[in-house]
């Protein structure tokens, strides 16, 4: 049976989300580069892998998936007994799983839309020769601050967002945070003590360092 393949860009936060999960699980895989600047993700053969034209796409043998958060959940469950456990310590405890699921939803719908806009304005626009819109940055930073205030309160109670162990909830945040730490938006993380500790903890993980190489 064919091995694991990830079709995407090593610079893409969504692709990195999947690569993180694979590294945490110590799984062998092949990264097949999709050149975003050339619009490869909007053409065949990539569209046959994801009809919405967004990276990454994923194959594990005959199984074909897209949407990074669905892929990481597949990896966490399919390879639960291997590498880092990315699910709650007692993954059969429905209450604990539901708490992690809340965190996954908050990351996807509250954190990521804002954080990704900030990364686009301050990092990715530079790749395309575009100019940062400081008004957009100010507006989105105000939104992100409110999300991080919620995180600060949560992290006063628990080491990680879903409890006392590292889970997918934390992992999903890492790629965009890594980019934002290289921008003035870093201050929103560092000025909140618990958030700052959490960010330091999750970004120093070996898997987090591997995706930067």
From TrEMBL:
The keyword Cytoplasm applies. The keyword RNA-binding does not apply. Belongs to the GST superfamily. Phi family. GO terms for cellular component: cytosol. The gene is GSTF3. GO terms for molecular function: glutathione binding; glutathione transferase activity. Residues 2-83 form the GST N-terminal domain. Its EC number is 2.5.1.18. This is glutathione transferase. Residues 93-213 form the GST C-terminal domain. It catalyses: RX + glutathione = an S-substituted glutathione + a halide anion + H(+). Coiled coil: none annotated. PANTHER family: GLUTATHIONE S-TRANSFERASE F3, GLUTATHIONE S-TRANSFERASE RHO. One of its GO terms (biological process) is glutathione metabolic process. Keywords: Cytoplasm, Detoxification, Transferase. It is found in: Cytoplasm, Cytosol. InterPro entries: Glutathione-S-Trfase_C-like, Glutathione-S-Trfase_C_sf, Glutathione_S-Trfase, Glutathione_S-Trfase_N, GST_C, GST_Phi_C, Thioredoxin-like_sf.
